[in-house]
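Entry 12.
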Amino acid sequence: MSSPHRSFWSGVAYFLSGLVLMLFVGWWVFPKVLYSQKTQPFNFAHVKHGENLDLECDFCHAFRSDGSYQGIPKLESCTECHDPDALQSEDPQEALFAEEYLKKDKEIPWLVYSRQPPCVYFSHVPHVKLANIECKACHGPKEQEELLPPYEENRLSGYSRNIWGRRISGIKVNSWDRMKMDDCAECHAERGDSNACFVCHK
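Predicted 3D structure (tokens):
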């Protein structure tokens, strides 16, 4: 017959073993199952356009004449600088861009990291034009980015992992680590702006 002392430590050992197993499943296995990784059509090096050419974000991600935001640029934005017949490159990504999209006048099917649910209304105008919030506050220092980050899609919701955040815990280090509702509410509260439901949900 085992002693109560031995039974206690056996229970502790079982508990710790189960805890470690559940942490492993929750922090490593679950994200692998929950998210599928997809590939962008080709790599876009923001650093070549931002730091090297000194282009501002709104050169490609522009506002229309009516004040609305076009978001992901159309191919016509690329052809303002890139001539499909003159673009010769040893870079396989640039060659792919020229052959498959520029020369065929075909829109690039980018996967959008920041796409929000239909119930969310977000306008860049009040944030960028009125509040003067820098793009990097929500999107990070993209001008230093040489490689597009992996696009991971939630198998259940269909949205990018960038919405929830890269960490399964949901903990953020930078303001651009995730795009959840409480991040918007936190920023609004810090700036003294309204957090009423109708502000972001139409």
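Annotation: The first helix runs from residue 4 to 34. The beta strands are 35-38, 151-154.
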